[in-house]
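Record pair follows.
FIRST:
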Amino acid sequence: MQLHVADLGPLNAPVIMLIHGYSQCGLSFLRQHALAKTHRVIIPDLRGHGQSDKPLNADAYATSEPWANDVKAIIDTLNLQNPLLVGWSMGGWVVNDYIRTFGDTDIAGIALVGSSITTGRKLPPEAFAARSSNPDVAATAMRGDDLAANLIATAKFVQVCFSTPLPADDLAFMTGFNMLCPAPVREACRTRNEDYRDTSVAMTKPALILWGKHEHLAPAPMGEQALNTFPNATALIYEHSGHAPFWEEADRFNTDLSAFAAQAFSQIQGAAA
């Protein structure tokens, strides 16, 4: 499995790993490249997405192990010391997959952006109902073989991630890189039903839970469930954002994430002293 990984910033700086969401790729975090002035910023394309390899068998995506092993391989290959793992949407599930498989000993903490600690039919009932009843969120044609329907559904899915209409160039750009994710990969990713609460409640490192006030993909009950489960969690809500506050309120997001990262890294340094 070959993964495409952007490695930005000073090699000896504190490490932030940004993990994108369903059907997206590392280009989602273009507005976080500014963090590389003060941090080593690692931005992978997940398996099946972007410029990474794309096996089409469902078992390459169906359980925690493949996702967790990919994150571990990045950490080991790049010799990353106590990275802060930041997961957006499905990327938050990948963070949870890592914790489930490897624990939190070798990371500084986590941040979940528009994400959750349960997935699919194991979501809070009101969140599952809200996601299922919005056709642009459900986006079933994104998982089908009809290319025209797939493309239309993908463009609508991209737009529903934001609280306000995207400029045409941004919508085209994001739709383009979302189309790099094949329909069978989307199907396998979207149909996972996971409950990470047992490992979340045992986590010892700090957790930051962020979501936008105008969320459609990750309604507030998903963030609230995570906030109430992690022992060392804090929350930030973005008043002018939907599912992608790191894009819609990038300056505030980068400032907030830097502050949280400093807190998490200081705890690691204090424990080592």
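SECOND:
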Amino acid sequence: MGKLLTDAQVAHFDQQGYLPAIPVLTPDQARHFRGELERCERQFPDQMRKLRSKSEVLAPWIVDIAKTPRLLDAFEDLLGPDLLLWSMAWRVKKNDGQTFAGWHQDFAYGGVLKPKVVIGALALSECGPEQGCLRVIPGSHIGDPLPHQDFDDPTSILARGQQISVPFDKSQAFDLALRPGEIGLFDSAVIHGSAPNTSQDRRIMVLVEIIPAAAYRTDGLEDTAMLVRGKDEHRNFAPEPHPDADFSPAAQEAWNEIIQIRSKMIYRNSTVKPADGYQGAASAA
């Protein structure tokens, strides 16, 4: 028995590559953090694109989400006591009946990190089938990544509009439905996607990407992360600074530098240009 997860839940994650809804925020906390997002949308409307990746360096309240004790307990049960935040990536889906995410595997384009990356889909609004919740293919994290193809599609919520380009079995697809304050966990190798939002509200979700401090990149690329629990004796990732204030000049300067590193990784060998939210002061090569 771990801090939050049962032995059966840990075994399910290892075998199936995901875990369904786990409460990690109270309803009041979920409302509070949604309110912080909406406050920033009003106060910094031109900066919201930056929340798509590495948002932890832009606002202290985003770090507060990542350091929520119950949230980190769930990750610790899967990854051990020393945890690095790889990215806080916001996925706010309009209720336009159009925006979607094609079937994909994150490690197919974000690079392979060992031993593994665990991603948490944390809901700050209702995230069910009507809202276009994540869907996962159980057990698809085993083996090598499938071939993907990039699409310059404005209705795709994904950085490269990427989709798996070969047939695969979708018959066991599972809806990762979430209530506000719940998190669904999945291995970065699991096949996942999402349908359009046809509800009356936005789907507000943040992807919490966590790695153990012992993790390393197999491709040798430069990378960054923020220590959120325990200690980092390995130093395989350059440490990210904590933001001093919401979207302060120092925070935005740090984001510009860090997103250049992230963008070069995400868009390596891509056929499309870096999307809005993956560009700093200058476009990544």
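COMMENT: The chain is about 20% helix and 25% strand.
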